[in-house]
Amino acid sequence: MNRFIEKYTDHEFDLIVIGGGITGASVAYEAASRGMDVALVEKSDFGSATSAATSKMIHGGLRYLSTYEFALVRESLKERRVLMNIAPNFIHPAPFLFSSYAKDKVSFKQMKLGMIIYEALSFDKNWIWDKSKTMPSYKSLDNKATKQLFPNALTEDLIGGQLYYDCSSHSPERFTLSFIKSAVKYGASVANYTEVEDFIVEPKGRKKKIIKGVKVKDKISGETKDLKGKLVINCAGPWADIVLDKVKKEHSSQELRRSEGIHFIIKKVVGDTTFSGYSKSGRHFFLFPYRNHTLVGTTDKEYIGKPNDYKVTREAIEDLIVEVNSAFGNKDKIKYEDILHAYGGLRPLVEDQTEESYKSSRKYEITGEKKNGISGLITVEGGKFTTSRMLAEKAINKALRILKYPKRKSISESTQLYGCEIKNISDFIFEKKKKYSEYNPDNIEYLAKSYGTEIDSIMTIAANNKELKQILNKDGELLAQVQFAIRNEMAITLTDIIMRRTGVGLLGNPGMDTIVKIAEYAAKELNWNKAKMKAEIQKINNRLTIPI
């Protein structure tokens, strides 16, 4: 992949997508795969904001049953199945245990009824291409069975739990990138570190405006260019209203609400099953097995302020610790010093009628701007990883109608993503372990899930250069991945490499030796001088520092 903005001159695109998170990436892929001429611009790196602050799950939205949003649950369950089909190396069935205590706001009987409905709504869960991914039906567990599965679960007032299956997302960062790569495969032009500064507007009458493109700044070169397009889709997530203000100017977009969601990683392992339940205050929480560690989440608190100013605070982390400790752990409670890594992000919320952001669902909206006298602009708000493909399909249906283009059938439900062209993931992993038998089998499995069919490119790089065969962490990630990220995946900064092209930084700071090793090789590839390399190291260290 190459940053098209560096060579862009005066071409007019059918569609310009603003935002390179999972929503923008899905929209660009959907449009390009239907034959549209698409450009995507992202002000930072692909998947670096909200899409990097996930719970690493693809789920059907069990909690939306409590608000009777059956259509949303059904759509999510259907899309969960679709993603298992089109991204078999990323999306995998995973067991979850939802605990029930006597004082929970949702009783054991209500949870059991909910699971029956959930099961019914997921009637097609095993209509999958890869039969190695069969998902079992749920089971109701009593007090004794729950304690056997989770010895550290609180025993007082424990009634039991519901054991069921949803899906885990092996690497949301690379999953997002696979949508970007798929868009490029079908001809999309993409560029990270390209920020929209304004809109190209053609007045029509006294009050009407027609969008003809966007003014963008290449943050790498510093150049500003006019990017021409027949239609613009705003997929800026928590920044969507700020983007709209650039064209409205005299108007103020106050409709978008934002919620903060944080997670943290601890070394303690809960087991192979996710434990979830309600804290004493009634908040949902979970402990999710992740790379021989435990991912703890999440908060859903309304955020007031500018999204560019957002950062994870000690207060937010401590609040989450208190919530989880109120409902899990006997003598072995989570302590602040247990935390290896904390991360967070802002989620865009559509609704404004609820008192707490947690009660807002992950519904999405696709709106035109004619009501404001603006034509040529669509805004997509809300949504989540699970329904991103369906959201994109609907957005492009709308775009084709606006542009008066012929109807073009979507192929995204029936076509595997770039690098994910795998019939049976179990057989694929077995074959790669056999092919690369000199490596630890668990490490090959990790790389096979991370790269899919592109694993051979990584291993070839390592085989041809002894230096690049160096192992960077316990998961077996290689220095070869750094070269691949820079030459093939548009990685520009050290943070891009450590946090999104690889998983080296996703369990916390890997240590200065590892960071310097990666930085020194990146410096050679990207022609950094010593001052630039030092600055990049400082940035990643700051990113990985837990709030004091």
How would you describe what is shown here?
The chain has 548 residues and is α/β, with parallel strands linked by helices. It contains 15 helices and 19 strands. Strands 3, 4, 5, 6, 11, 12, 13, 14, 15 and 16 form a 10-stranded mixed beta sheet that branches. A hairpin with a 5-residue loop joins strand 12 and strand 13. Helix 1 runs parallel beside helix 5 and helix 11 crosses helix 12. The longest helix is centred in the first third of the chain and has 17 residues. The chain is globular and about 70 Å long. It starts with 11 loop residues before the first strand and ends in a 5-residue tail after the last helix. About 1% of the residues have low confidence.
Topology of this protein?
Layout: E1 12-18, H1 22-33, E2 38-41, E3 57-58, H2 70-86, E4 91-101, H3 108-121, E5 139-142, H4 143-149, E6 158-169, H5 172-185, E7 189-191, E8 194-204, E9 208-218, E10 224-234, H6 240-248, E11 257-266, E12 274-278, E13 284-290, E14 293-297, E15 301-302, H7 314-325, E16 339-349, E17 364-368, E18 374-375, E19 377-382, H8 388-403, H9 425-435, H10 441-451, H11 455-464, H12 480-488, H13 494-501, H14 512-526, H15 530-543
Parallel strand pairs: 1-2, 1-10, 2-7, 4-12, 9-18, 10-19
Antiparallel strand pairs: 3-6, 4-6, 5-6, 8-9, 9-10, 11-14, 11-15, 11-16, 12-13, 13-14, 17-19
Helix pairs in contact: 1-5, 1-8, 9-10, 11-12, 12-14, 14-15
